[in-house]
Structures are given as structure tokens and as C-alpha cells.
Description:
The protein is an alpha/beta fold and 402 residues long. Helix content is 24%, strand content 30%. α2 links the parallel β9 and β10. α1 crosses α2.
Amino acid sequence: MSNRPLKIYNATVITPHRILEKGIVLVTGTTITAVSDRDIPITDAIGINAGGQYVAPGFIDIHVHGGGGCDFMDGHEEAFLTIAETHAKYGTTAFMPTTLTSTQEELLRTLALYEASNKKNKRGAQFAGMHIEGPYFAMNQRGAQDPRYIRHPDPVEYKHIVESSTAIKRWSAAPELPGAIAFGQYLRANDILVSLAHTDAVYEEVLEAFENGYTLATHLYSAMSGVTRRNAFRYAGAIESAFILDGMNVEIIADGIHLPAPLLKLVYKIKGADRIALITDAMRAAGTNATESVLGNRENGLKVIVEDGVAKLLDRTSFAGSVATANLLVRNMINMADVPVTDAVKMMTLTPASILGIAHSKGSIAAGKDADIVIFDKDINIHTTIIRGEVVYNKPVDTIND
């Protein structure tokens, strides 16, 4: 890393409060040291002329399974590093590696690989902690999760897993299962974010779960109950519950396939940018041109096809993860959901940072924050990705020395 300051100028800077035309962002080392709409005289700086393009905080994706032909369940460090470098090309500067329902042995191996890979990750998106998705799910809402490993929360099992790794920062589960409330309480006591996911819960069950730590809804609408009837009576499902509970955060796969434009608009209208995190839920085919792929471990995972911009089970009865990249999510929220660019960017930056409790250092362009920065054009095509002050991806941009 250069010891010289970095000066990004001629930029349309998206800050938490406004857009600065002809803005300036100054970086010293790994930290943003100044943001202004006036020139900042400085000698010996490395200059990046943004050419009037947007300069925004680096994207934070809190739900990623893979990319670049690799999956975090593949069982080797190279997969972690390849996925990190792949998503950095699309503006992601921090993300949560996410598991799939598996054996306990496979899960523990993946957690260990996270620890080892994190030390070697120099050119890719930063790891923001592991997200364990499963195995405590409702069978009816399993989606593409392997039914062989779905089970109820087991205190002996999950306590052993938590005690085995410091990498776990989030865990998704169905809150209506026997033992799920105690599971949520245990996770929160260990500072782990609890999400409701792959669930058949009704409102009363979601409310109890929310009161006991389940503060995030994993991929809202996907593998989640809506209004249901029991003995002729209607019950609000997990989807309606997430809307009713003002304090419930939600994440959405804004690839335009999992949720079409009307639902993107509805979620934004009800929850607003401060409660929505955009996620890719990307599987290994993201960032590739593959038409056939595997969800999960390459050797024993689930074979899928990629068509219509999404991964599907072979019989096409269910989606099997997205092939989206973070910049596509921002573009879709602007073009499909009519969301202002500032809010679209917030849902990919500051809101996920707040959900993870790291907004003090990430998620916005402000002095004192980590220098995680992305430069993109009006169509949200990524031109430059900067992670902690270092350019890790750069399309041809007018870069000069001042």
C-alpha cells in the first residue's frame, strides 16, 4: 500500500445527507480523512479523476454463498478468496460468507476455513463474519436447502458450534420450531444476529421471536409464509409480520427475478431504506456465464441450471439462489422500483452496516470511516473499487498523479 494520500476529485459524491457535485474525497492510509465540495489542497497525492461519476461507500452484502465458480461450502481456502475477489469487481467491499444446510462436520470445517482465509484475503471484499443459514428450518419452506440435513434446534449442537468459532456473526432459522426461542436467546447473549428464515411462522410466533432476538427477516418473501388459513381462520404469516413490526429489518434479493418490480416497490414503500438491506444471495455462478452449476459443495451439492437470470432446480420447481452482483441490485431498485439513487445506495451500504453493528466504521462516505469506496457510472457499472484505501479493481479510468 502506498504511503501517499489518495485524492478522488471531480466526483459526484453520495454522502449520508446529500450529493456533492464536483466533490472531493481524501484518503490517508486506510481511512477517509476529508469530504468536501471544495478543493482540498494537498501535495504528493495520488489523484483519481472520477470524471463526474458517482463516488459511494463500498457495497456491503450480508448474504453471499458464492461467485466466480466457487461456493463457500467447497471446502478449501481458494474458494473463499475467489469469491471475495469476484464480488469486489462489482463494488462489494465487505460481505458475509454464508453456509447452506449441511452436516455439523461440514459446517465446522467451513468455519475453520473462514478463519484461515480471512488472514490471506488481501485483494477481495472483506469478510464481515460468517452467516450460518440452517439447518433449523421448516421442511415445507426448505426451497433448495438439502432436506437430508434439516432438523430442529439442538442445544448441544449449536452451543458446540458457537463455542468452536469466533467467526459466527449471524444465524438464520425458523422461529416456530421447538427450541427456536431458546436458540435465539442464546445467540443474542453471544452477540450473534438472529434472522428468521425458511419459516412457516404466523404472526404470533414471529412476534415472540422478535421479542427474543429475531430482528431480521432473511430474503423476505423467499421461503417464507404469507397469509394462511387454519380451520377456516386467516393468520398473518412471516411476510405480513415483517411489515407490521416496525423494528424488524428485512433483506431482499433485488435481482428482479426473486422479487418483481411491484414487490420491490411494496417493500420499499412499507419498510423504507433504513430497514432494507439489499442482498445478492449469490451462488457460485454469479460473475460467470455458466448455464449449469452446483449449489453447495461442488462434489455433493445440488445440481442446478441457470436461466432467466437466476439459478433453478433441475425440475424448475424452485429458485436455487441468485446469480446477481451488488451493482445489479442498486440498478434494479432505481430502474424497477423507482427508488432515488441515494436510497438505493443506502440499502446496499449504510443500512446493512447498521444491521451488522459496524456503521461506526463502514457504510458511508465520511471523515473517520474506513476508506471502502466504489466509483460507478449512471448505469451503476463499476469502474473502481477501493478497500481500506487500496484500489483492488480498476477499469480504465483517468488516473493521474497530482
